[in-house]
User: Fold these one by one.
Assistant:
Number 1:
Amino acid sequence: MQRGIRQGIESQILMTSAEPVLRNLCLRIEPNEKIGIIGRTGAGKLSLFQALFRFTDRSLITGHILIDDVDISRITLKLLRTHISIIPQQAVLFSGSLQSNLDPFNHYSDGQCWKAFEDVQLKKFVSDHSERLLLPIAESGIKLNAGQRQLVPVARAILKQSKILLIDEATANVDPATDTFI
């Protein structure tokens, strides 16, 4: 997997439990292709996300998942997860500063963080607080409204510039204006 080069994703015959949620799945996503996976609750959407992130025990999966023709079971979790970003339905925020929520591993400059906040229209909100990027955030994100909480993972994904972006109903819990923006 080379940064900046993306050939596609391929997944075949995926099982994620004793009673497989996903059976006989063969999927190929070409570079720059955008797809939507739609289904009722329990149809396997989350199982597919979990398999892509390798949250699922490998012994429960038959077949393989390839990204850029590389079997994801043969690379480190760290390398795999540097190539994938997720914007979850419920924003995940950690205790710490706003900047550490955006860039938990301190890989990016302050300028890059500001640009990501600008891209999601949070720059003014951050600038208006005296702590700015160091604004303390509780695990629940109580200093942020629902829309702002949801925009932090969007900014995180923009900052990371992953070639693979998984979006799980990211606008389900936000106001109409934030929904339209996302």
Note: The two ends are 28 Å apart (CA to CA).
Number 2:
Amino acid sequence: MKKNILLTIAILLILSPYSFSSNDSEHRLKMDYKASVGSVDPNGKIIKVNVNGLVCDFCARALEKVFMKEKSVSGLTVDLKAKEIKIYTKKNMNLEDNIIEKKIKDSGYIVSSIERL
């Protein structure tokens, strides 16, 4: 019985690094993910936000859900390779920097810059 337990522990210890490394490479493969949701209002504003911590399509989907709930947002583009999101606002509507920062921080990411185009 003890031999079986020790053998199981040894196998798990040997295979653990492999499972971590394969997950990491899977994340790297998805780094070139780029997606858009919603639409671009030609009369609205474009807000470019550089975000640290975006690594996979799940990160992008989380931010899409958060920002598309805002009344002032007409669309959103997430570019994982550039680590940026572009927020498209509706005509005559705005989204304040502090709200953008809070939503991104609450989602688990860090804002490095906000630029209004």
Note: The helical segments are 2-29, 57-68, 97-106.
